[in-house]
Specification:
This protein is an all-alpha fold. The chain has two domains: about 20-195, Up-down Bundle (Growth Hormone, Chain: A), CATH 1.20.1250; about 210-395, Up-down Bundle (Growth Hormone, Chain: A), CATH 1.20.1250.20. It has helices at about 10-15, 20-35, 45-50, 55-80, 85-105, 110-120, 125-135, 145-170, 175-195, 210-215, 215-230, 240-245, 250-275, 280-300, 305-320, 325-335, 340-365, 370-395. The longest helix is centred in the middle third of the chain and has 29 residues, at about 145-170.
């Protein structure tokens, strides 16, 4: 009598096994690219200190960057579906490398403003193409885990890149532009060599953005994503201002507390992504949004570094819960030949939030910190409720 012994997969296999090799090439390129993401976080410092621009001129330059990013996602979605995922991603990365160097060597205000607009237009072209590639390469059951792993790579790379970028900036800002350009080229070459083109043949009746805009479920989900993005964008807009100007934390104290966000994501997210991926997407995403809203609402009561760290731990837990879900939902809603456009509309919600967050957050902070943070918390809870309402329609898809 014989028996078959089934080996239980190892911990490492359970976290990274079962995904195709081209996905790991995309993952590796994303990690390398994020390791080199040094220019954008230091743009304001570069424009005012290295190029001697006034605060008004620097604000203008960063404003046109935002305008370019608004167009970027929609344009990239069309290119992803028309010319292909691989060509759009690699081309966008090469264009980013070229314009990074152009900006690094620009000295006049017109040249800087023009470079910033084009940089905003091309720097995130890769996102819809990357999202579509994952949807094409990975089975629906594994997509939440795959998108979660990409989220993890982005955060790991960004944490290391920020640390290295701060040191390099002290050696000379031009180094930031060269490192960012080089890692963009590496990403482009890696994808071109190791990732096959997966764009399906478009049907005559496939249509364009009109199909996306007539998809009520996708429009509803985009509004939920906009709420999510408005909440999260406060981490880069009003949170630093409120903590340093109102609570009177030093930049060092604020940076120390914010480091907890990256540490928790890098340690915890890979451990829970597989389990979260097996849960109902709508309910899980709603839970994450509600927890994020709670964390930001708690910021109204912060008076020291420890209190800030507690709130960061709470909203980071919500961020971890939501990590791999949006990409999987968009992939499920989109016809295969329109995945780029659907991902582009989703990305547009984040670009729009980056523009709206300071415009809305600034006046609210002027009224009072509690008004700002309770409003942001309310946006998170409303987004969670909207996601629950969308749940049945998403499950039918």
């Amino acid at each position: 009598m014989s028996s078959t012994i089934v080996e239980k997969p190892s911990f490492l296999q359970s976290k990274i096994g079962g995904l195709p090799r081209p996905f790991w090439a995309l993952w590796g390129g994303t990690l390398v690219n994020r390791l080199g993401t040094m220019v954008i976080p230091f743009t304001g410092v570069y424009l005012t200190q290295s190029r001697g621009l006034s605060l008004t001129a620097a604000g203008l330059a960063m404003g046109v960057f935002g305008a370019g990013s608004l167009l970027s996602q929609l344009l990239a979605g069309v290119l992803t579906d028309r010319i292909g995922r691989r060509a759009t991603l690699s081309g966008g990365m090469l264009a980013t490398a070229a314009i990074m160097l152009a900006l690094g060597y620009s000295t006049s205000l017109p040249a800087i403003v023009a470079s910033m607009f084009v940089l905003g237009l091309v720097i995130d072209v890769y996102r819809p193409a990357s999202n579509a590639l994952v949807a094409d390469l990975v089975s629906p059951a594994e997509r939440p885990r795959a998108y979660g792993l990409l989220f993890w790579a982005i955060n790991l790379g960004y944490a290391v890149g920020m640390t290295a970028g701060g040191w390099l900036a002290g050696q000379g800002f031009v180094w930031l532009f060269w490192v960012d350009a080089l890692t963009s080229v590496v990403f482009a070459v890696l994808v071109w060599r190791a990732v096959p083109e997966t764009r399906p043949e478009a049907h005559e009746s496939a249509g364009g953005f009109g199909v996306v805009l007539r998809d009520r479920v996708m429009i509803g989900f985009t509004l939920v994503a906009l709420g999510n993005a408005l909440v999260y964008s406060q981490t880069m807009t009003m949170l630093p201002v409120a903590m340093t100007k109102v609570v009177k934390l030093t930049p060092g104290q604020f940076g120390l507390a914010m480091a907890l966000n990256g540490v928790l994501i890098v340690i915890v997210q890979p451990l829970v992504s597989g389990w979260l991926g097996r849960r109902d997407a709508s309910r899980t995403f709603a839970l994450g949004l509600a927890v994020m809203g709670l964390g930001f609402a708690m910021t109204a009561f912060v008076s020291d570094t420890f209190g800030l760290a507690v709130t960061i731990a709470v909203w980071t837990a919500g961020e971890i819960v939501t990590a791999g879900i949006p990409g999987a939902v968009v992939a499920a809603l989109a016809p295969a030949e329109l995945r780029g456009r659907y991902a582009g509309l989703f990305g547009f919600s984040w670009s729009l939030a980056a523009v709206l967050a300071p415009l809305l957050g600034g006046p609210l902070l002027e009224i009072g910190p509690r008004v700002l943070w309770f409003t942001i918390g309310g946006v998170g809870v409303l987004s969670a409720a909207g996601m629950l309402l969308l749940g049945p329609a998403i499950r039918r898809r």
